[in-house]
Sequence to fold (423 residues):
Amino acid sequence: MPSALGFPVMFSTDSCLMKDSAPNRACGLQRLETFVPNAGRDYARNRNSDHGPERRDNVSVLSPWIRYRIITESEVLVRVLEAHSATAAEKFIQEVLWRTYWKGWLDQRPAVWHQYVVECDQARETVQSSPDLERRLEAAVGGRTGIEGFDDWAQELTRTGYLHNHARMWFASIWIFTLKLPWVLGADFFLRHLLDGDPASNTLSWRWVAGLQTPGKTYLARPDNIEKFTDGRFRPKGLATRAEALKGAPLPSPAPLPPAVDEPSADLTDQLLLIHPEDLHPESLISTCGRPSLMLLLEPEAFLPHWPWGDKAKRFVSGACDDLAGRMEQGGHGPVQRLESIDAESIAAAVTKAGREQLFTPVAAVGPVADALKQLEKDLDREGIQLVSIRRDWDQAAWPLATRGFFPFRKHIPKLLARAGLG
Ligand SMILES: Cc1cc2nc3c(=O)[nH]c(=O)nc-3n(C[C@H](O)[C@H](O)[C@H](O)COP(=O)(O)OP(=O)(O)OC[C@H]3O[C@@H](n4cnc5c(N)ncnc54)[C@H](O)[C@@H]3O)c2cc1C
Fold:
């Protein structure tokens, strides 16, 4: 299937990541167990090295499962803190909290995501009228620029759906400062191929590299740093030696989070629960809020054509939905009705048939799923049904603290862990 840029989306199972990447909870938990012994001081020492796709034992590669909340941040940290002290695991804890921080930051500034979407559409139009830009873009996403490392990462990403964090930083920096390509199209290329493609982590990390997120501060990829952290596999020539921050609109001030019921005070008993790809672990909601009489599961198809992720992520999420439906059945959590479209009328009919006037759903962080739910909320309202969002306790505690940079946010981590019972 062609991507938005017109290039084929490839998929294979030949990398270390893909071999044991079954899109189910059991596989995520197994990966967590395998990684836990390495999550302490070893992680802090070794995490920056990209040893290549065949050797990923210095990082967890848990991001696809964490991204869709197939496994939750708190359960990852519970296991890590059973095996290591908070001091030894400090670095790993901070990385997991980076994800939480980006989510909270963007949820308080949704305009940054919507502006990115607009700029992306504009950049695609510009490409169509500029053969030179189109040629350079094709070379970059096809891994044919002649830049060592960069070309390998482009191919690794399209083949496996994963890149090491350092490779993501080098790639974005070379894309922006050496190849001088529009940053939004680089972020789009990532979103269409990453298994863990995420509106907050991806957009804000690209903005951070470009100097748009922390004004004036950019990330410059250097050949010696790349050589050191790729075990000498790559030492690219001809990289930009300066990284001047891109110009952009001033950062918007944080706005209050949209209204939602806090997880501990929500009562789902005999209610209807709408599940979506931003939060695929209903068991933890049910254990705090009660057992619903029916779960409606929105599959990735329901978000087409606005699903901005590629085929690999779509297949991963579809598999995760199959797994979820099976788990709910086997665990006696209640019946699941799978939905391949967001049809307000039939959803309203299901709610009415159950004798209810409300439909509950976990909050979807800013992005296409949240946009689709916002529209559904309006449509259901016309049918006399109220869509009630439940904000996870983890998000409720952390997101409002993401008002400035990560460093002020980081100070709150001990308090956040204590609130989650991990202190
Ligand atoms: C340009 C760029 C784009 C990125 N796009 C995404 C994206 O779309 N989705 C995504 O999940 N992450 C993204 N990241 C963050 C990070 O690269 C990945 O989360 C990480 O590489 C995933 O690998 P891992 O699971 O082995 O991480 P580990 O090092 O094992 O970390 C454990 C977990 O912490 C979280 N995490 C770690 N580092 C970061 C980080 N810098 N920012 C946010 N969360 C982090 C992830 O959930 C990860 O699974 C991006 C980073 C950059 C520089």
Observations:
- The longest strand covers residues 386-391.
- Strands lie at 261-262, 272-275, 294-298, 336-339, 358-362, 386-391.
- Residues 303 and 369 are 7 Å apart (CA to CA).
